[in-house]
Design brief:
By secondary structure, the chain is mostly helical. The chain is built from 22 helices and five strands. The chain has a domain of 158 residues: Reverse transcriptase/Diguanylate cyclase domain (Alpha-Beta Plaits), CATH 3.30.70.270. A five-stranded mixed β-sheet has the order 2-3-1-4-5, with helices on both faces. The chain is globular. The two termini are 43 Å apart. GO terms for molecular function: diguanylate cyclase activity.
Length: 563
């Protein structure tokens, strides 16, 4: 969602280009017109190359938010070039990120995907974890624009646990909002609602509009589920929040959604007033692409009211603004609406002309989605992901080697020190059929264990299992640790990821060494895990020496095939 505002003063504050640029960047989302004004004012008195680069970046971002894509592109490209001359890699990263957003908004999805992949690589090289996560989030947005739901969900379900792990609350909230949008676009409205509601539960920090965005998406989900009163309530709450921060562009988008609700409630006069209010706000802030949407909604409504001339005028305005902002989706919709309106008016030649225009634009959109360059970029992204997975496999292998060594050392110490040692085997249980959901469930379980175990040895082996070695832990302590881990997985809000998704954890544990060898400890824990799983899953079992009916679930970690 574009969230700019037009509350910029006629004259900027004290004549300091550095201060102007700092403020311009700080208000770039909430007040894009002010960002543009401050950047232009600073450019008039700038002497340093670094300030010139930052001014170009601020100006490009602000112009993009206002829908002036052609002008914005030139500014961002200049910023990227200047930061390159300065050797400022973080400046390059920011410029690439804005360039990718700009390309996506302008409909050049192939270029956008390539840019965000480059942004992610640069963020990783700089050790900027948040930048890397945000780039992956943006890659998901591009895939969603392409209609590639599999890669979209993979990106979001990867960034979600990463943002949680690093305590990036704003990023976590934004990811859940993006996930809600993706589910909405797939028609999975209950899951869209669950993701939006989960984002409302995250305590975001520096981004005041995130809660409003979450409410806005909850409203869209309710609309899809035909719960129009609930949709109206959510949108009205979001509108109040956007109004409070002066975000007029966001208010305009909410007015469109409220207009759609009014139409479904057969309040056509109210819907028209809401669409006109949305249009007036977008004209005020200069949001070109947004005006295309408002004109389109208004034109379709006027056609329904049989106001043919007014409807045709509105739809032609929609087409003009869509073409100006290179918004192919809106352009495609405007031509189709014009075709239907002219056919309704009996003007078949004009109807045929706009049908041809609609089909041509639709073909361009289809070709973009199936372009061979896109396939190569997807392959590049997949190769990069495979590299990350190989790195993970190497780390897992190292963990297992360390575990085996530690088991040997522990075994040698047990008799001399009379110290109890516990070994836990845990397995993640779920019914997820999608790789992305499976990976998220497994990562969440491992992260939960990492958070709760300070000085104990933790190793992940295989896709869904991990092992924990706890020194100095008696049976009662081991039982308590197992229960905390089990509850942390059971209580996780999995419904935000997929409605009906349930993930549990079964654990088997053994305390002390039973036959003088590490393998004996492993076998005992392994048998306990077998009992836990066959008792109905989501269970804990501690090894009981008196049970003679145990079966061997695994032989030894040393014999584990990592594939």
């Amino acid at each position: 969602m574009m969230t700019d505002s037009s509350s910029a003063p006629e004259t900027p504050p004290a004549p300091s280009p550095g201060a102007w640029l700092a403020e311009a960047w700080a208000c770039r989302r909430s007040d894009s017109k002010r960002t543009v004004d401050l950047a232009r004012a600073a450019r008039q008195v700038i002497e340093e190359l670094a300030d010139l680069a930052q001014a170009a970046l601020c100006l490009g971002y602000g112009l993009m938010r206002l829908g002036e894509y052609a002008s914005a592109l030139g500014e961002v490209q200049q910023a990227l070039e200047l930061f390159g001359e300065l050797g400022d890699q973080d400046g390059q990263r920011k410029s690439l990120n804005v360039l990718g957003i700009l390309q996506c908004e302008g409909g050049d999805l192939i270029a956008s995907l390539k840019t965000f992949i480059q942004t992610r690589q640069l963020s990783a090289a700089l050790g900027n974890v948040q930048g890397e996560i945000e780039a992956l989030n943006n890659i998901g947005i591009v895939y969603n624009s392409m209609g590639d739901s599999t890669n979209t969900l993979e990106c979001y379900l990867t960034t979600l646990p990463l943002s949680q792990q690093h305590g990036l609350r704003d990023v976590e909230c934004q990811t859940l909002i993006n996930l809600s949008v993706a589910y909405h676009d797939l028609g999975r409205y209950s899951e869209a609602l669950a993701a939006a509601q989960s984002s409302l539960e995250v305590e975001a920090g520096s981004e005041p509009t995130l809660r409003a965005l979450a409410l806005h998406n909850a409203g869209r989900a309710h609309f899809g589920m035909q719960a129009y009163s609930l949709a109206q309530t959510c949108h009205q709450e979001a509108l109040a929040m956007f109004t409070a921060v002066g975000d007029q562009a966001a208010c305009a988008e909410v007015y469109v959604e409220l207009g759609r609700v009014a139409q479904q409630q057969l309040d056509l006069t109210g819907a028209q007033a809401l669409y006109e209010h949305s249009l007036a706000l977008r004209q005020k802030v200069g949001e070109v692409r947004g005006q295309a949407e408002s004109w389109l909604r208004l034109g379709e409504l006027l056609g329904r009211l049989r106001q043919t001339d007014a409807a045709l005028n509105a739809l032609h305005e929609a087409r003009t603004f869509a073409a100006q902002s290179q918004a192919r989706t809106e352009l495609c919709a405007a031509d189709l609406a014009l075709c239907q309106m002219y056919r309704q008016a009996g003007q078949h030649r004009e109807a045929l002309h706009h049908l041809e225009q609609h089909l041509q634009t639709k073909e361009v959109l289809f070709n973009d989605a199936s372009d061979q360059r896109l396939q190569r970029l997807r392959l590049e992204f997949d190769v990069e992901q495979a590299g990350h997975e190989r790195d993970l496999a190497e780390r897992l292998s190292a963990d297992l080697q360390q575990l085996n060594l530690e088991l040997e050392r522990t075994n040698n110490k047990l008799e001399a020190a009379h110290q109890q040692t516990s070994l836990l085997l845990a397995q993640v249980e779920h019914q997820a059929n999608e790789d992305a959901l499976t990976g998220l469930a497994n990562r969440r379980a491992f992260d939960a264990a990492t958070e709760r175990l300070q000085n104990d040895l933790l190793a992940r082996y295989g896709g869904e299992e991990f092992v924990i070695l706890m020194q100095g832990a008696d049976a009662a302590t081991t039982q308590a640790v197992c229960e905390r881990l089990r509850r942390s997985i059971e209580d996780y809000p999995w419904a935000a990821v997929r409605t009906g998704l349930r993930v549990t954890l079964s654990l088997g544990a053994a305390t002390a060494h039973l036959d003088g060898s590490p393998e004996g400890l492993i076998q005992a824990a392994d048998e306990a895990l077998y009992e836990a799983k066959h008792a109905g899953r989501n269970r804990i079992r501690l090894h009981s020496p008196g049970n003679t009916e145990r079966r061997l679930y695994r032989q030894s970690i040393k014999n584990k095939d990592l594939g």
